[in-house]
Amino acid sequence: MRIAMVGSGALGLYYGALLQRGGNDVCFLLRRDYDAIRRDGLRVHSIHGDFYLPSVAGFRHSGEIGVVDLVVVGLKTWSNDRYHELVGPLVGPATMILTLQNGLGNEERLAELFGAHRLHGGVAYLCANRGEPGTVHHLGAGRIVLGALLAENADRAESLAELFRSVGVPCHGVDDIMRARWEKLVWNIPFNGLCALMQRSVGELLASPKVTETIRGIMAEVIAAANAQGLREPIPEVYAEEMIAFTRAMDPTYRPSMQLDRMEGRPLELEALLAKPLMAGKARGLALPLITALYALLDLS
Amino acid sequence: MRIAMVGSGALGLYYGALLQRGGNDVCFLLRRDYDAIRRDGLRVHSIHGDFYLPSVAGFRHSGEIGVVDLVVVGLKTWSNDRYHELVGPLVGPATMILTLQNGLGNEERLAELFGAHRLHGGVAYLCANRGEPGTVHHLGAGRIVLGALLAENADRAESLAELFRSVGVPCHGVDDIMRARWEKLVWNIPFNGLCALMQRSVGELLASPKVTETIRGIMAEVIAAANAQGLREPIPEVYAEEMIAFTRAMDPTYRPSMQLDRMEGRPLELEALLAKPLMAGKARGLALPLITALYALLDLS
Questions:
Q1: What is the ipTM of this complex?
Q2: Which of A25, A204, A291, B144 is most deeply buried (CB count within 10 A of its CB)?
């Protein structure tokens, strides 16, 4: 299968490397890592075992790649206004698009540009950070939950899930990708938000019982906002405890992407991760005081 | 009148200087500024006009001061476990004590040690910061609201208010000092809390409409907690807008004391300003999610 990875941050490099190792023809759209990867290939340091891809097809522009079978979008959401430029040249009549980006609004925007029939959304539970150019560190987890934007394409979503499973990624298809997005937000909003705001790792936050209560409070608001959207099946309240347990099992020094973005002076994914979920919840009449405050403070910082 | 200022931070130095200039015999208990003030006196840079007191009675220990008519307590509340040592030697049979400290619990603790009959509480709306040793900067406001801890001592509270008015401090006595304390908390909790958390001045916070909404949300929680205490007269909701207008009229670069404490690595007044009000509100069944989160994050930071 010919696959383009658009947005080669930690997520794009890691899953792209697995897809290539599994026998697919993977093209990486690169920026920071272009020179290093063209010269030296791509090194993956993974809790499941390190591996090295000496020859990697890296490109600077999507036009050099051309049409592919599958576009995997791993861009930071603040680059979404470049979808046309970055994804457009890769799309032919039969191309599928899978966005693994965080937050809300990505599938819808891509569907507007390229058609809903080819759109799939996935939620990646991946702890990974980029190392020096040409290196990615897989620190934990890695499961993907994915689904088609249109219910009639469930079989295609299942074939994409099978593709990921075939290269060693735990992956399953779901009927309701919007529920999966909101489930991820139950983690993303408190942990990306508070780690970025406080410049503390997940373990440093969870070491404080008071902050853990605040995390629970934020999660409860996200679950309430999710369930107000008319999901086919509501997210149970206990999901918050599951996410806290999941996080306690992580490397406590793990820094979510928004914390790294802030540390390194990059823009933050506030629109997709905070503003859109807030707007969706408030449209259903919820006050969401903690998420509102978190967004306000991150927007200031 | 013989007056001891216990805790000579910006507040103690400023009001003590006015009391001395007005003809009272003022003794300052000093620590950081002891050498400078003994050598060079005390300089007040004030929006109402600068003045200089060349000769100031500064002491290192309360025992050197002995019994006074009035003890004005301006200690940081994290020094309250030193009340016995710092205030005790100043108290004779007729001594009055006025605490101008922030937050809850100060009058009660002093009353336990020295008797409720001598206890008065005051709330100072003062923008002042210490400068170099021997210098205090009065940047704005300065009004004091004070009252007796026991209702039967209202006349004494009125005489204290008259003392402050006689030296140029806008001051009035109130029946319900607890209501006045909570009114001050409506300002203190959001502004001390958020300025310290974000390391931003009051004007930097109010420049963000989103953060201003968060401030309003926190103020609404403080007002709810206050009114759940059975105040003789509830604090109206509109008080929050008055406090925001009051703050917009300040020097926008003003940094509340907790922000300075954090900048300079000192302990924060979390117990008196956040933990005790939270406990009081939760005891009345309120959830107070924003204050709870603010306390959790300040406690981490």
A1: 0.83
A2: A291
